[in-house]
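Onboarding guide, step 5: your first structure request.
Type a short instruction followed by the sequence, for example:

Predict the 3D structure of this protein.
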Amino acid sequence: MSALTSFAIKTGAAIAMTIAGSKFLHELDHNAVISAAGALSTISGVLFGFVLASVTILSSFDNSKGLIGALKSNGVLKGIIKGLFATGATLIAACTSAMISMFAPNAFSLALDYFTLLLALSYLIISMITFCMNWKDLSAIIGHA
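The system replies with structure tokens like these:
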């Protein structure tokens, strides 16, 4: 599956989670949205930094011996790094959605700030699930090394 298709599926899931969340959660005023969006964008940005550092560390090893060398020679490392890039893409989407919700107007009787905040939360949840799946794969490999 291509990266774009994967991101489109995750975006569809995030939109579905946003719609479901809007049915069960009560709407927030703009000041509460700004506070929550600030926290969500900070968390997403920090987690993106960790994912980017992980990709950098994993791809910078030049040792042909050891675990990283074996993962490179088997082609498994490429899949792990692709999964981390996918996680990074959803974290950037979460951060962007949270920042949009800070500045979104409350026009046309549609709480755009609230819905983009829910979208950011949905992206963050999907990012955490994606990261946990990648970590599970990596820890299964390391456990057998």
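Each response can be followed by summary notes, for example: The mean pLDDT is 84.
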